[in-house]
Amino acid sequence: MDPLLVSTVLLWVVVAVLSVTVLALARQVGVLHERVAPLGAMATQTAVEIGEKAPEFDLVDLEGRKVHLGGRRADGRGQLLLFVSPICPMCKKLMGAVRSFARSERRAVELVLMGDGEREAHRAMAAEHGVRDLPFAISPIVGMRFGIGKLPYAVLIDAEGVVRAKGIVNSREHLESLLVAQETGYASIQDYLVGTGRGRPNGAATRPPAEGG
């Protein structure tokens, strides 16, 4: 009986130690969950900053439709300019999310694709990914005026023609985060994190965007 008693006692000791370990891990998981920042577009410095009037442009898209960028809009919707390129792998991966986002958010914002380069290459990209119904304009001047340096990059302009949010976008969540940034009154996800104490300055708590084109 002595060996059986000893083994039983040892077993209960092991169970007690494992229980304490599991509780400690669960507590740490809860702490990490509270500290994890929401995914959002990573804002970078550009020529036109948040809160400034966006420059206005009159363009013609790949399908021959007139597209006006910036300025006050009578329909009350904002504009989301998404800068992409046919040679940017991440831009191509994003196209599926772009189609879905444009449909679901069409009452709140008009999504306009912007490119720079050969029109035929961009037209082939639009056809391949099923976004020919979306405005897709080619103009190097627009990217230069906004100071776009990395792709894919999005700029949200409100119905009054003011830049409200911007950032590198690699997913639908990133696109949606720009609308959330405007709705909450924060200029970017980074500002939201700092303002609520859930992150560090300069967006250090956000997930770094994958490399684009």
Walk me through the structure.
The chain is of the alpha/beta class. Helix content is 41%, strand content 16%. The protein contains six helices and seven strands. The strands form two sheets. The protein has a five-stranded mixed β-sheet, with helices on both faces. Strand 6 and strand 7 form a beta hairpin. The protein is elongated. The termini are far apart. 35% of the residues are buried. Mean pLDDT is 83; it is low at 33-38 and 197-213.
The assigned structural class equals alpha/beta
SSE string, helix = H, strand = E? HEEEHEHEHEEHH
Number of beta-strand segments: 7
What CATH architecture label of the largest domain applies? 3-Layer(aba) Sandwich
Strand order of the largest sheet: 5-4-3-6-7
Helix content: 40-55%
Strand residue content = 15-25%
Q: Cα-atom Rg, whole angstroms?
A: 24 Å
Estimate the global geometry from the Cα principal axes. elongated
The overall pLDDT, averaged over residues, is 83
CATH fold topology of the largest domain? Glutaredoxin
The level-1 CATH class of the largest domain: Alpha Beta
End-to-end gap: 73 Å
Low-confidence stretches: 33-38, 197-213
**Structure annotation, total helices:** 6
Major beta-sheet overview? 5 strands, mixed
Query: How many discrete structural domains?
Result: 2
CATH superfamily of the largest domain: Glutaredoxin
